[in-house]
Design goal:
Its EC number is 2.7.4.25. With about 230 residues, the protein is of the alpha/beta class. It folds into 2 domains: about 140 residues, P-loop containing nucleotide triphosphate hydrolases (Rossmann fold), CATH 3.40.50; about 90 residues, Rossmann fold (3-Layer(aba) Sandwich). Helix content is about 50%, strand content about 15%. Strands 2-6-1-7-8 form a 5-stranded parallel sheet, sandwiched between helices. Strand 4 and strand 5 form a beta hairpin. Helix 2 crosses helix 4. Bound molecules: cytidine-5'-diphosphate (2 copies).
Length: about 230
């Protein structure tokens, strides 16, 4: 064994990406934000005024653009061809349409395959909805993060405020519930806790608490690798 793979799944705003980034930094391994890839595609679909429900048209967009996750000094950036869309993909219009795009089977097939390629021959921590169940079914460690809807809405509210993204708490809570429902009930690889995933309720945990808990779970693999 010369690599470690860590899958982090869970509903919206449970803290997946924040914690995954910390883990990647601590272990010196790659972080892959799979949600950002679905968001980037959604951004482009909206830019081109395509109906998110039209799978064929959405696939035409996906086939003609290059979505890249690029590590820069200030963190991970998301590029569509050479355009930096890191901020734009977090806006409410993209958030409102992303689940409609992520439900298409052709889209998922393409994304899952790209994500598996990114993880090939590397130590990775990857977060999303179907990482433990579909993308990395043999991951060494699978975590399913949850938190109450009201706590998640509060977290997203604070985050949006800091980023200058318009938001109100009630709307965010409804939006999170709606997206969780769409993601959990879609036919193709829905949001689901993999059978062998460890569930962590983060409602009353800090980011550092969650990071430490996951690193503790990873300890046997970390020791074998000698990376910490
Ligand atoms: O950060 P947040 O939890 O709001 O969402 P995200 O991780 O950026 O994911 C945005 C959307 O992409 C989700 O609501 C899903 O519809 C979709 N997604 C997915 O279907 N599968 C993944 N592995 C990751 C995201
Ligand atoms: O990736 P996901 O949508 O699951 O969540 P996130 O974007 O990592 O976290 C949403 C917000 O909650 C961020 O602003 C985090 O700083 C915050 N957070 C928190 O306050 N406490 C935690 N235990 C985890 C995340």
């Amino acid at each position: 064994m010369d690599s470690i793979s860590i899958a982090i799944d869970g509903p919206a705003a449970a803290g997946k990406s924040t914690v995954a980034k910390q883990i990647a930094k601590r272990l010196g391994i790659i972080y892959i934000d799979t949600g950002a890839m679905y968001r980037a595609l959604t951004f482009q679909v909206l830019q081109e005024d395509i109906d998110p429900e039209d799978e064929k048209a959405v696939m035409e967009i996906l086939n003609k653009i290059d979505i890249r996750l690029v590590q820069q000094e200030d963190g991970q950036h998301v590029l569509i061809d050479d355009r930096d869309v890191t901020e734009a993909i977090r806006y409410p219009d993209v958030t409102a349409s992303v689940s409609a795009i992520a439900k298409h089977s052709a889209v998922r097939k393409n994304m899952v395959s790209a994500q598996q390629d990114l993880a090939k021959d590397h130590s990775v921590v990857m977060d999303g909805r179907d990482i433990g169940s579909q993308v990395l079914p043999d991951a060494d460690v699978k975590i399913f993060l949850i938190a109450s809807v009201s706590e998640r809405a509060k977290r997203r509210f604070e985050e949006n405020k800091q980023k200058g993204i318009p938001a109100d708490l009630h709307t965010l809570e409804k939006e999170i519930e709606r997206r969780d429902d769409l993601d959990s009930t879609r036919e193709v690889s829905p949001l689901v806790k993999a059978e062998d995933a460890i569930e962590l309720d983060t409602t009353s945990l800090s980011i550092d608490d969650v990071t430490e808990k996951i690193l503790e779970i990873c300890q046997p693999f970390i020791k074998k690798l000698g990376i910490r």
